[in-house]
Amino acid sequence: MSLTFVLGGARSGKSRHAEELVERLAPPWTYIATAEAHDAEMAERIALHRSRRAEDWHTLDAPHDLATALAGLPADRPVLVDCLTLWLTNRMLAGADVAAESAALAAALGACKAPLVVVSNEVGLGIVPDNALARRFRDAQGRLNQMVAEKADRVIFMVAGLPMRVKG
Amino acid sequence: MSLTFVLGGARSGKSRHAEELVERLAPPWTYIATAEAHDAEMAERIALHRSRRAEDWHTLDAPHDLATALAGLPADRPVLVDCLTLWLTNRMLAGADVAAESAALAAALGACKAPLVVVSNEVGLGIVPDNALARRFRDAQGRLNQMVAEKADRVIFMVAGLPMRVKG
Amino acid sequence: MSLTFVLGGARSGKSRHAEELVERLAPPWTYIATAEAHDAEMAERIALHRSRRAEDWHTLDAPHDLATALAGLPADRPVLVDCLTLWLTNRMLAGADVAAESAALAAALGACKAPLVVVSNEVGLGIVPDNALARRFRDAQGRLNQMVAEKADRVIFMVAGLPMRVKG
């Protein structure tokens, strides 16, 4: 139906803003979580995010097969995908062909019938990272963000908790 | 009276723009400096910033107790706080409870009667830092920026010396 | 004639957008490349960029003496400079006085008679880098970007392949 893409840095209020956008629509809402708790720091972040959400939210875990999860959604239920950065991390660590999978995911997001709000990180505005894996991740994230932004009806860039309209 | 929040990256012209905003108001102006010269590089930056300011500026150092400094200000004198990133660095290195202190500082900024321009860095738009302290700082800075932006009447994001209006 | 400055992060679609801006004008177009292939990763990026361009493009390499290359241009031919970040890297690694050269380059860009589109990276929105050279580069890049943005008629900040108008 409509695809809103919420981009921003760490602690920029992306998730909160995306949740508010979904909650403007009629419940129930589906939350597609891509987080995998690799360590205690991650587990804490996941718990914090979950504790913030009300009971009208139905959570679905899709740390790897996000495109399939999207394909199985009912058309009338608003969906939040949080977030593409964790999905990309999971796929890269699993040794996947992230270029091909990113293109497939962008297509799946564009084809989805449900009202969608998708969260992702902008990670390319610092100095070039020292290690090659970080550089590869930065490139892959930037390309994925461009592909999703192209499909999106609305693109929002978060600055200090405030939305800046980039598209739509 | 009014709170303007000027956010941006390193060398984005934040301080200069913030000074110009204050200098549009009637002097004398108060400059609250949060810098502590931990090394020669910092000392040089502080000296450079000071040398740029005219004599209508009265400088007040508050590298740690910024909330108290704000509480003691006269209501009719424009104030520049430069910057929250150095304050947060100082407090974190001192082992403070930065979450609690950030909330208290945001409240103090919101309650301040003087016309205020506050400078801070956006630090969350690069790749996830390798070390845990840098990640903690990045999170704390992002949360502080969100809290101050919420209180602010006007929020400006600097890009290459140019202001982008985010709020107000 | 007119100077457009396209700023953005890694993989933000800067080069593609800048090329599209130039290709709206009548050909032939001049592409001033500042890349030096220090390693295989760079060589691959350069080849990728070149393969994207049509034959109406005439390429000119100026990894170091960019100001001289600009001075020798005909006034009626649109020019793309891609990018200032690689130029700055080359000059810094060569031990140049980058502050002086940045000022001279900004002046040369401002004085150029040809319609110009100039690409550069924003690198200051992450956490402070660990090593001193990266910090010096970040500062030099920020200052150069400010100088060019001041001369520019139009400044564009790219987010996920989408242009945000900052000036003009």
Automatic annotation (TrEMBL), chains A, B, C:
Gene Ontology molecular function: adenosylcobinamide kinase activity; ATP binding; cobinamide phosphate guanylyltransferase activity; GTP binding
Enzyme active site: 49 (gmp-histidine intermediate)
Catalyzed reactions: adenosylcob(III)inamide + GTP = adenosylcob(III)inamide phosphate + GDP + H(+); adenosylcob(III)inamide + ATP = adenosylcob(III)inamide phosphate + ADP + H(+); adenosylcob(III)inamide phosphate + GTP + H(+) = adenosylcob(III)inamide-GDP + diphosphate
InterPro entries assigned: CobU/CobP (IPR003203), P-loop_NTPase (IPR027417)
Annotated Gene3D superfamilies: P-loop containing nucleotide triphosphate hydrolases
Entry EC no(s): 2.7.1.156, 2.7.7.62
Pathway in which the depicted protein is active: Cofactor biosynthesis; adenosylcobalamin biosynthesis; adenosylcobalamin from cob(II)yrinate a,c-diamide: step 6/7; Cofactor biosynthesis; adenosylcobalamin biosynthesis; adenosylcobalamin from cob(II)yrinate a,c-diamide: step 5/7
Keywords from the UniProt entry: ATP-binding, Cobalamin biosynthesis, GTP-binding, Kinase, Nucleotide-binding, Nucleotidyltransferase, Transferase
Domain of life: Bacteria
Function recorded in the entry: Catalyzes ATP-dependent phosphorylation of adenosylcobinamide and addition of GMP to adenosylcobinamide phosphate.
UniProt family annotation: Belongs to the CobU/CobP family.
NCBIfam families associated with the record: PRK05800.1
Protein's UniProt name: Bifunctional adenosylcobalamin biosynthesis protein
Source organism: Ancylobacter mangrovi
Gene: cobU
